[in-house]
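Lab notebook, bench 4. Continuing the backlog of folding jobs that were queued last week. Each job is logged with the same field layout so the records can be merged later without manual cleanup. Today's entry covers Methyltransferase domain-containing protein, a 277-residue chain. Filled in by technician R.K.

JOB TYPE: sequence-to-structure
TARGET: Methyltransferase domain-containing protein
LENGTH: 277
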Amino acid sequence: MMIYLTFREARALLRGIELINVDLGKTKNMVRVIRVNNYYLFPDGSKVERRIIEKIAEDEGTVYFIKDGEVFKAAIAGEHFYKLVPTIPPTIEINGIRMHRTKDTDPMKDTIAKVNTVNPKKGEKVLDTCMGLGYTAIESAKRGATVITIEKDPNVIELAKINPWSAELFSNPRIKVIHGDSYEVIKEFNDEEFDVIIHDPPRFSLAGELYSEEFYREMYRVLKPGGRVFHYVGNPGKRYRRKDIQRGVMERLRRVGFVGVKRSEEALGIVASKPGR
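JOB STATUS: finished
OUTPUT FIELD FOLLOWS
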């Protein structure tokens, strides 16, 4: 049993509440944590000092977990700094930039809005080009689709393995995780292999090749006739530099042959399809 703690649970313990949730809200299950002198005793036998609980209570931006009786941050430092953020469900933050929309929404609502634009169905095959924490792949599989999801960054995969909300990525037989660069991996798929593509790349400044006409041509090739595409774009440039990133994406999608290209205001992206035979 993995035990997760955020500022919410820590503050509850400090108020004397014994029953808390320790799976980041994935379920409504509660466990009893008993205070003994200056430490808290968890169901797995872990003893956590009060001073550590106080530290967690002050940190509203980080997820913590207990492993082998020790408390760790769900964070990885290297060339970039990665961490799980205690939204419900969690999102990933990379160098201070969140990978899901959280303003006036949450990562699950954000995911459902994206998946709803193409509505994968039972028996269909989905390509999820940028896995992240895998919520898109998991939601697509829940609807009966089989999913291939690709993630380039090993640190993101590692945080997904820690995150309880991502567990189905590694246990659901309808989901296959590929560690690799979507720009290269997509070239290995067969023509007309997928019914649906959900393309949710990092921002343009970080992964411009995933917004290129060359990549869109590969998306077109691997999509079945009549297949659907959702491409998350957001609108960072339009707000700050009066540059409409979405418009450029739409023009390139049309140039490679996609039809029905239009904006999805709710999901902040573009939907399109490949002409049927």
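OBSERVATION: Residues 107-273 form a domain with the Rossmann fold fold (CATH 3.40.50.150).
SIGNED: R.K.
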